Amino acid sequence: MRIALDRIKGIIGQLQDFYLLSFHGLVGTLRRPFYSKDLIEQMNYAGFGSLLVILLISLFIGMALSLQLSAELSRLGLKMYTGKVVGISIIREIGPVLIAVVFAGRVGSGMASELGSMVLGHQVDTLRVFGVDPVKKLVTPRILSAVAMLPVLTIIGDAVALFGAYYIAVFVSHQSGTFFWSSIRDILTYENILAGSIKPFIFGYLIACISCYMGLSTKGGAVGLRRTTTQAVVLSFIAIIVADFIMTRVLLYILGFTL
Amino acid sequence: MIEFDRVSFSYGNRLVLHELSFSVHEDERTAILGGSGDGKTTILKLIVGLLRPDSGRILINGADITEKAEDELRDIRIKFSIVFQEGALFDSLSVKENVAFPLREYTRMTEEEIDRKVRELLRRVGLEEAIGHMPEELSGGMHRRVAIMRSMAAFEPKMFLYDEPTSGLDPVSADVICKLILDLSGQGRGYIIVTHKVFDAFRLANRFMFLKGGKIVFDGDRPALLGSTIPEIRIFLRELNLDRN
Questions:
Q1: Average pLDDT over residues B68-87
Q2: How many CB pairs below 8 A link A and B?
């Protein structure tokens, strides 16, 4: 009973620390000093560093989706709707979620392991001794970089996925390229773009906060570092999926879609 | 003066320090000895307010720091120069940027002045050529030397705190670090060195404390330490080949 109570207290304490870190990390964007060099470094790592893997994954997901839907829709005599279905799926759902998952795997794990090794190597303590707020110096630039770069990567990834889908639809499924693009144009409505573009901001914030929190709470040497890095990635995945469901529900309601 | 008044500290359920009381003057050369996990590093972290005790008071020149906010601790921390185990240099910064870090944070020096100051500090420890190196390119001894210079780059500390400054170093590098520690002390500046290497402690300190089970079981000078009958201390002294039993 006592062990269970201690565990519950521990979880509540961790949640409280997580909320405080997320809040202070965000508030740090408004207070001096601004660590612009760290921000640029992080944006380069998160954005440019992730570009190749996002391009590759998006391209093949777009192509696979187009293949699947072309095959299924042609059995129903609805092959001409491939572009529309692929477009809605990628822009509203698959693009933001998939790219966020890849981002969490690459950038989130990097954040957690880097901060974790800084904790273990007393570098975070050294910052505090020098009077530097570790949250401002380490967490705020990472939150900002994730919030800024994930939407950009999502837009690029969506575009590449649509090109992949177009290639399959036109050159493998022998559909009309003009019709494919006009279907895509049709679905590029304010509602769809809004639904797809809000998500990456939230995902980026969640990934950075979770990864930084896990990294800064590392203890127990190499084994502890492995544990927190893994937890950062797993918790980010869960947060992305849960937040995606909630945001989809809310956005559908706000934008007036009926179920 | 540093005063610990019945300080207790635990990591989770593990009690590390139990009602610890002692005081150290700024000009003293003190070595805290003890086994791994006995709370030696914890004491250093408590002194600069990186950790807060579960109970008890820590007084720095009469001011209780246990309830101070992070911002208020800044004034306390600049009185000390703390060098963590293995140096704790920032991996992503070059040697120059590491040493320049506190200068950028604490002073309004121009880039030229910073460059001059960093070179001067590195010259003192024979590392001016390594100014453009990254920490991963340095040996263990070079790491410590850079870290020591960084810790005193921006201000004149009243006291040095060294966490295992010679652990993991070959005897020659350890000798260089010991000489540097002795060089930097003086003019009323003492240090606390936390170590499990008795040989280095004997070379550097004139007061010795021994931690065991969260308490100080010995506090005295060199002859008293050599004459101690505490079994753990006798084991530590074997390093000096004085105790052949």
A1: 86
A2: 44
